[in-house]
Amino acid sequence: MAPPIPLLAVRGSDGTSLLSGPPTCEQHSSFQRDARPSRCVSFSRDGTLFSWCNGQNVSVVNSSDGSVVSTFDLPKTSLLQISPLNNILATWQPYSKAQDSPQGEANLQLWDVQSGQLIKALYQKKVESWCPSWSDDEKISVRSVNNELQFYENNDFKTISNKLHMQKVSDFVLSPGEAPSKVCVYVPGSKGAPSFVRLYQYPVLGGPTAALANKSFFQADRVTMQWNKRASAVLVTASSEVDKSGASYYGTQTLHYLAASGETSQVPLAKNGPIYDVAWSPGSTEFCVVYGFMPAKATVYSLKCDPLFDFGTGPRNAAYYSPQGNILVLAGFGNLRGQMEVWDVKKYKQVSKPQAPDATHFSWCPDGEHVVTATCSPRLRVSNGFKIWHYTGSVLLQRDAVEGAELWEVRWQPFPDGSFPERPVRYQTAPSGLGSTQAPPTTAYRPPALRHLPATPSAKLHEEEPPQNLRPAAEKSLSKSALKNQKKREAKKAKQQEAKPEPPSDPAPVSDSQSEPSSGDPETDKKIKNLKKKLKAIEELKDQQAAGKVLQKNQLEKVQKEEQLLKELQEITL
C-alpha cells in the first residue's frame, strides 16, 4: 500500500489554502481556498480534520475531501485545538469585559465537533496553557486554575474528578500515551526556598510518597518541560532572567533529567553559556542538546545522561529529529545565517549542509524525506515565502508571497506514528531544477589595503571543535559477553605487566637553566638572559616576515636592533 500524500496548510494575508505534496505542492483539489485572512489554523492530531477561523466563523472540514464537518459563529477566535480523538474543539479568544458584564464573557469554549453543541464555557485570561491537556485516549483532561490542577474524566467538564493543590503551581505537562497518565508540575521557589519539579501518576496525587520523582534547583524563573514519547522521562530546562555572575546578558540555563522510575540528574554540559534547544529522539532512548556561547556545541546524550556523540561547534541554535528518528538537523536561525547540518544519526555522518537565510520556521514533513523552511511575518515583513527541501540539500519548490501580501504560517498535516516507513539515508543530492543551496565557506575579513597581498595564517576569533564519538570503542561494536571477556583479558595483561621487573630508569634530563653557562655574576647572567630573549623574538619576527606577513612599525624597529643586541651580547660574554 502506497503511503499517503501529506498536505501543507498555508496561512497569510491573502487567505488560507491546503497544498498537496511534496514535492510539487499543488492546490488540494478538494479544498476550496478561503480568500479571507485567517486568524489561526489547526489540524487534528491524526490529520483527518482541518480547522481555521477567517474572522467571520470557525470551520472544521475533512482533510481528505474537504467536506464540512461543522461551522461555529466565533469571529474573534484566536486559537484552535482539536482533542486527540477528534471529539472536542477548543476555541480561545482574548478576554474582555463589557459595561453590562463586569465579570466578562467566558472566552474558552469547548464544543462537540460533530454536533456543534457547546459542552462547557470557561474563563481563561492568560494565553499561556490556554487549552486543557488531554491524554491520548481522552479518558483524562487537566487544566490549571488558581494554583491547582483540576482533572476531568471522559470529557465530563461538569464535574471535577480530582485535584492536585500545590501553592503557586506555575506550569504542568501531561504525559503522552495511554493510561496510566503521568503529570509533571513546576513550582517556582520563593523566600530563599528552591524551585522544584515533581512527577505524579494519576490518580495518586496526594501524600508525601505520592510523587514518582522530585528535583529541586535554584536560579529558575521559568522552566520548559518535555516528555519523551514513551512517557518514561522528562527533560526540564530551568532559566533565570539574571545571571548573577555577569557572564551572560540573557541569564542562565540548566538542564535536568527526571525519570518515572525516580532517577534524577543534572545533565552535564561541556561548554558554558545558554541552552538554545533540547530535542528528544522519537525513539525516546536519547536526546540532543544545543548549548554554549557561540559557536555553540551540540551533543547527544543517553538516558543515563552520558554523552554519546559531540557534533563539535558551529553557528547553530536549534535541533530537529526527523519523525522516524534516523536524521537530525542542526540549524542556526534567527540572528544566524540559516545554516543547516543534516546528520545520519545511526552512522553519525553528515549528509548535507544547505543554507536557508532569513528563515523563521523549520519543520519536518511526516514522510521523513522533506522539510519546509519559511520566512513569515511579523518576524520578517520582507521576502516572505517558503521552500520545500529534500534533506540532501536540494530545493524542490520555492513559493514567494505575492506582491503586497504577507505569509503568516505554514503547517504540515500530521499523521499517526508508522504511517511512513523509515527509508535508508541517501548521501547523493536529490535531482532538482532549482539546485541546492550549500553554505559557502567562510573567510576572515581582510582590510582593502591588504587584499593585494598573499593571505597568511591568522589567529581565529573562535576555536572550532570537530565532531567526535564519545562512546568507548568496545561499546560500539562488541556484545555484552564479548565486552566482559575483553575486560578480563585486559585485567590479566595488566597483572602480568606489574609482575615484570622494571627496567633501569634513564638519568634525569638536564634542564635549560642547568645547561646555561654561568659567569659567576648574577647581574651579568640576568643581562645575558634578557639579550637572548630579545634575539629569539627577533628571529620569530624575521620568520613571519619571510612567510609574507606585513610587520608593524614597532616590530620593524625591533628587527633593526639585531646587530646592536648581538654586539652587546658578544661584549658581555668575552
Based on the structure, what is the oligomeric state of the protein chains?
A: single chain
Strand content: 25-35%
Outline: globular
Helix content: 10-25%
Total number of beta strands: 37
Describe the structure.
The protein has 574 residues and is mainly beta. The protein has a domain of 53 residues. It has six helices and 37 strands. The strands form nine sheets. A five-stranded antiparallel beta sheet has the order 24-25-26-27-37, with no helix packed on it. It has a four-stranded antiparallel beta sheet with strand order 3-2-1-36, with no helix packed on it. A four-stranded antiparallel beta sheet has the order 4-5-6-7, with no helix packed on it. Helix 4 packs antiparallel against helix 6.
Short description:
The chain is mostly beta strands.
List its traits.
574 residues; mainly beta; 5-stranded antiparallel β-sheet; 4-stranded antiparallel β-sheet; globular
